[in-house]
Amino acid sequence: MKTILIIEDNDDNMKLICFILEKNGYSTIRAVTGRDGINMALKDKPDLVLLDIQLPDMNGIEVLKAIRNSEADGSLPIIAVTSFAMSGDRQHLLSAGCNGYIEKPINPETIIEEIRLYAGEPL
Amino acid sequence: MKILIVDDNADARYILKKTLASAGHQVLEAENGKIALSLAQEHLPDLVISDILMPEMDGFQFCRRIRGNDTFRDMPFVFYTATYTDAKDEEFALSLGADQFLRKPMDGKGFLAAIQNLVRKTAQGEIPASTSILNTEKTYLKLYNERLIQKLEKKIIDLEEETEARQQAEANLKATMEAVPDMIFRLDRQARFLDFKPGKGFAPYVSPDAFIGRTADEVLPEEIARQTLANVHKALETGRTITYDYQLPAKGKVRDYEARYAPATNNEVVAIVRDVTELRNLQKQLLQAQKMEAVGHLAGGVAHDFNNMLSIILGYAEMAVNRVNVHDPLYGDLEEIINAANRSTSLVQQLLAFSRQQPVTPQVLDLNHLIGNGQKMLGRLIGEDIEMVFIPGHALWSIKIDPSQIDQIMANLAVNARDAIEGVGQLTIETGNIVIDEAYCQMHHGANPGKFVSLTVSDSGTGMSRETLDHLFDPFYTTKPVGSGTGLGLSTVYGIVKQNNGFVYVYSELDHGTSFKIYFPNVEGPPEKMELPRTKSHTTKGDETILIVEDERMILKLCQTVLQRQGYQVLCASSPEEAIILCKNHDGPINLLITDVVMPKMNGKELKDRIEAMRPNICVLFMSGYTYQIIQARGVLDEELNFIQKPFSTADLVCKVRQILDD
Predict the structure, then answer these.
(1) DSSP states of B313-362
(2) Which of B61, B146, B152 sits opposite A109 (nearest CB)?
(3) pTM over cut 0.80
(4) Shortest CB distance from A108 goes to which of B138, B146, B148?
(5) What mean pLDDT do residues B225-250 have?
(6) I want to staple B359 with a disulfide (CB 3.0 to 4.6 A). Which of A52, B93, B113, B627 is the partner?
(7) Cα distance between residue B201 and residue B182, in whole Å
(8) Smallest Cα–Cα separation from A34: which of A10, A74, A73, A64?
(9) Cβ(B106)–Cβ(B20) under 8 Å?
(10) Which alpha helices (H) appear in chain A, and where do they start and end?
(11) Which residues touch A102 (CB under 8 Å, ≥6 apart)?
């Protein structure tokens, strides 16, 4: 089963994302802070990371870079989740090393398509 | 009107469809938003009724799509829902462009009226064409996410409640299992032990860890493992509970188990295993007791009839021997008959003792005193190679028993001990006070709670095998060589103990010895002085008139002959009626009435009352093959009456008659 790491400090969003992912057959692991998120991304070997860009302890981009710097081949798919509404954000995050980009509030219909694209089918 | 209903619950759809169809509407059905959307595009319905929570595409998403489609922009859209509905849901639904929000459940009439009303208003243009006020995708998604999270939370609460209820049920099940004294196992199809709850009888045959995760054939003896697997399969295939009895060695002893295999879920079987060792032991003891009872009745019955015959043989032989000269060759022959008859009489006495019909005179006595007195006699019985040790219990309570019965018990046990000891050995006699409680009685069939005096006779002999122990008290069962034992010794002990409301148990270890434990109930009061045998009258002759009533003609004739020889006038009656007529018609006095107790039509007691009414001064002697106790128990006789037990010797009869007439 494919495992998705969700790094997200908002409890409601965490619940909703986990619900949607689990309903679609993915297994989820959760981190509430950037620091935990980095550790789990490296240690627990998820198949994909959903990374909230606004975290309490660290800037999402820092988290992203920390993961990219520590992994061997840069192959872990990381999708940024953000409520930054401005254009330009998207480009900024992608150039920083994100594979994809999801805007909040999330669309339950489309989030799965995005995840399938990078993580593959759940099984 | 063409109405599209959208609900993932088939039952809900069915009821809705029936309601709408009854009002003449045509109904289209879809089980989620996705299907509904394609149905709508294909059939162009006049109205949509949708639930909220559905898989694939929920009601909110569906409504959003409908309102975003130019074709359906004005089509009336109704939410009809119940699950986790709150005011915010309605607000959100209406903001998506729904025309009405109805809450389940509604009755058919109310529901139809609401629908008709909506249709009418729409047709009359009272309701402006609904459009979603949520202009941007982002606003929609934000509110939609909120709704979803809200519903998730409610669902989580429900799940938590469900979990709590399940935990409670599990706790209850666990408590129930703990309360069951039996062992409980869970096994899979391969008879692999998955789970285990210890219980009574779980001896450290194997520790739980040693068999959890293992199959029956890895931990159980071959045959039992094979049966276990077969039972598991049988339970799974038949869907029924299968029972299976087996034995396993545990703590060096064989224990009996009763297993029940019941099919559970997941191709698994729950087995409840009960240790029934004690139950089986009690069943065996009960069976043994019943057997003894039955044999006792049989032996008693035979002995009773046999007694009558012996009376006649003995009586005539004694009369005959008195009439021949000592030098006559017949004299020796007659003596042999008398000897044989006497030996038979003692055999019958043993049978009667076993069947608890031995005539006895119980008295309150001190067992220590009695055994102390009898030690010399026992010493002679067992010989010099066997050391006898008597350990009298301190301040021993009194018991009530015929002292001669204690002698019988001690003699029988001593002789058996002697025969069990090869060469030198020890015979130990112990007495003691003991209070027997309910717990002991539950383990020992035949025991009663109360105060008892115990008598333990142990030897250092060869001990007994299981087989011998099973038949120990059976009459005529003997392990001694042919001709050496009658097989009545221990039967006698058993009968005597039972007759005195006691009980007896045997503990024997092969090659180590045997111990008999006998318990007699304690009676209050000080021991009586031993009664000395009555001195017999010097003379046995007389000239009084005696009336004999006996339905057994041979005995009647015997008594007549014996008494006439002593000089008595004898009147004979073979029935009570005849006796009464004789009494009326006889002119002279009648000094003594000798009557059988048990006779057809009228018993001895009734006869006595009738005759005493005519002749108040008459003496009475009862005779019977039944014992005094039995006759008393049947209420036939009162205590202070004269009684002679059959078989009696001629000497006994004439002595007793003289004694009564002299008193």
Answers:
(1) HHHHHHHHHHHS-TTSHHHHHHHHHHHHHHHHHHHHHHHHHHTT------
(2) B61
(3) no
(4) B148
(5) 92
(6) B627
(7) 8
(8) A64
(9) no
(10) 11-23, 34-43, 60-70, 89-96, 108-119
(11) A50, A79, A80, A81, A82, A111, A114
* Inter-chain residue contact A108 with B149, CB threshold 8 Å: no
Give the one of B61, B142, B153 whose C-beta lies nearest to A105's C-beta.
Answer: B142
CB B424 within 8 A of CB B485: no
The per-residue pLDDT for range A61-93, each reduced to its tens digit, is 889 999 998 887 888 999 998 876 556 777 888
Amino acid at position A11, single letter: D
Residues B610 and B578: their CA atoms lie apart, in Å, by: 12
Residues 62-121 of A with CB under 8 A from B: 85, 105-109
Chain A positions touching B148 (Cβ under 8 A) are 16, 19, 108
pLDDT at B535 over 50: no
Contact across the interface for A15 and B61, Cβ inside 8 Å: no
**Would you state the pLDDT for residue B533?**
43
Query: A24: which 2 tokens?
Result: 């679609």
**Cβ within 8 Å of residue B97, ≥6 positions away:** B63, B64, B66, B67, B77, B130, B131, B132, B133
For the cut 70, the answer to whether the pLDDT of residue B268 exceeds it is yes
Closest chain B residue to A109 measured between Cα atoms?
Answer: B57
Q: How far apart are CA B394 and CA B404, in angstroms?
A: 23
Rg (C-alpha) for chain A, rounded Å, is 13
What are the percentages of helix, strand and coil residues in chain B, rounded to 5? 45, 20, 30
The pair of structure tokens assigned to B250 is 């545990």
Q: Do B141 and A107 touch (CB under 8 A)?
A: yes
Share of chain B above pLDDT 90, in %: 26
pLDDT by residue (tens digit) across A53-67? 888 888 888 899 999
Residue B363: how many other CB atoms lie within 10 Å: 16
A12 in contact with chain B, both atoms CB, cutoff 8 A? yes
